[in-house]
Amino acid sequence: MARRNISQSGGGEDEDVNVTPLLDIVFIMLIFFIVTSTFVKEPGVEVTRPFAESATERKAASIIVAISDKDEIWINKEQVPLEAVKTMVEQLRRENPKGTAVVQADAKSKTRLLVEVVNQIRSTGLTDVAVSTEDV
Questions:
Q1: Counting beta carbons within 10 angstroms of the beta carbon of residue 90, is it exposed (0 to 12), middle (13 to 18) or buried (19 or more)?
Q2: Model pTM?
Q3: N or C: which end of the chain has fewer CB within 10 A?
Q4: What is the pLDDT of residue 35?
């Protein structure tokens, strides 16, 4: 029988593991998840929405406008006057032209203000505007 001599190396350089391909894959996956993820946008104020029996669930909207119980209008955590709603929505539409809008009006807010806000949004050319309610 023939014997083999097995030599043990003392930790030479040929034992290193190349992690460059692993890092490439991790960065590609990170970029993929960032590009495909949707971010939750908050209007900037907590709203108590009115109840509705005819409420239907919708997909996430890209533009959220909130009207507080004190008749304050909030877009992207920023309080805006009624006259500035149109320009703010136009700026947000440039970011996402195919987006939709949702108005979250507090149950104690004035209906007239809600209608005026919806009119300001529709004047930008955005026809898909919904009013957020709670399901009964």
A1: middle
A2: 0.63
A3: N
A4: 82
Grade residue 136 by pLDDT with cuts at 50, 70 and 90.
low
In a domain, 104, yes or no: yes
In the β-sheet with 63-67, what is the strand arrangement from edge to edge?
A: 78-80, 73-75, 63-67, 101-105, 129-131
Contact 76, 44 (CB under 8 A): yes
Whether the pLDDT of residue 10 is over 60: the answer is no
- Which tokens belong to 70? 């004190």
Strands 51-52 and 134-135: parallel
Element (H, E) at 74: strand 73-75
pLDDT of residue 41: 66
Residues spanned by the domain of 120? 51-135
How confident is the model at residue 9, as a pLDDT? 55
The answer to whether the CB of 133 falls within 8 A of the CB of 52 is: yes
CA 24 to CA 28: how far, in whole Å?
6
Supply 18's token pair. Answer: 């190349």
Residue 73 belongs to a domain = yes
Average pLDDT over residues 28-52: 76
Is there a domain that residue 84 lies in?
yes
Which residue's entry shows tokens 């992207």?
76
